[in-house]
Amino acid sequence: MPLIEVSDLVKYFPVRGGVFNRVIRQVHAVNGVSFAIEKGEILGVVGESGCGKSTLGKLLIRLLEATAGQVLFRGRDISNLSSAQLMPIRRQMQMIFQDPHSSLNPRMTVGAAVREMLAFHEIVPKQEIRAEVDELFSKVGIHTDSKEKYPHEFSGGQKQRVGIARALAVNPEFIIADEPVSALDVSIQAQVLNLLMDLKDEFDLTMLFISHDLKVIDHFCDRMLVMYLGFVVEEMPCRDIHADALHPYTRALLGANPSADPTQRHELTVLEGEVPSPYDLPVGCPFAARCELVTQQCRHEMPPLVDRESGHRVACWEV
């Protein structure tokens, strides 16, 4: 049984206006997304900014309430649980946020931020909390003498390590990492990714890893979902994504990445056209307006996400 199962997940954000502040339209952020994550697996989610990646992560952990659909954790539907019913499950599902600075309270020392998590969830006896904080900081590479400092006294990479320590404090099974390295220098990104990989093995974690960088997804994840305008257009293993990718959008993302080897230059792909408005979704394929393979069927019929081989699903009429 998968650890996480998602079925037809939908999220619309109402837009209000007019004299009576009525709902005049809706932003279609996530549109009928379904997938599963096996225990111990890292599933990557990739796509352009605004495609619904972060919204999807917050829906799984119920930081946002879904408009429709189901999220199952260990086979139990958590979509409609009350706050009291959800509390024990929240200990098992934690999130590492994209901006390490804004996710920390500037008026609270980093040690106090982690102690608060331990105390609230009663992870260890009160007299053992400080020792537990020291151990967590040691695991993420923060010197224990720094625990009484405030967030502004740390670099971006150090603050993200504090965020990781806070997420690990409650011994979770499942972690959502929402672009955890995008706000960091390139030299620091590799350190944080290596740390996450080590902690994943040590704590036997299952992860949803959100990123806009396919190179990071390819290096870090077991499988990936490619999202466009709130839809999943391709799901595939991260074996050899350059050879295996089928959807025109996935291939365009790969073509837009510069080669890591300066001796192997290639012409970068530049997508033409505009992303359709999330207020007014197109009738057919959401990528039709920018796709070089587009046909009349693409413009009028939404392609289903169908299996092409084991673990590989694609939503495209032409591949």
Task: Give a description of the structure.
It is a single chain. Helix content is about 30%, strand content about 25%. The chain has about 325 residues and is an alpha/beta fold. It has an eight-stranded mixed beta sheet with strand order 6-7-8-3-9-10-12-11, with helices on both faces. A four-stranded antiparallel beta sheet has the order 2-1-4-5. Helix 3 (about 110-120) packs across helix 4 and helix 4 (about 130-140) crosses helix 5 (about 155-170). The protein starts with a strand and ends in a 5-residue tail after the last strand. The model has no long low-confidence stretch (mean pLDDT about 90).
Q: Biggest sheet: strands side by side, in what order?
A: 6-7-8-3-9-10-12-11
Number of strands: 12
Element-level helix/strand string: EEEHEEHEHHHEHEHEEHHHEE
The number of helical runs is 10
How much helical structure, as a percent, in the residues?
25-40%
CA(first)-CA(last) distance: 31 Å
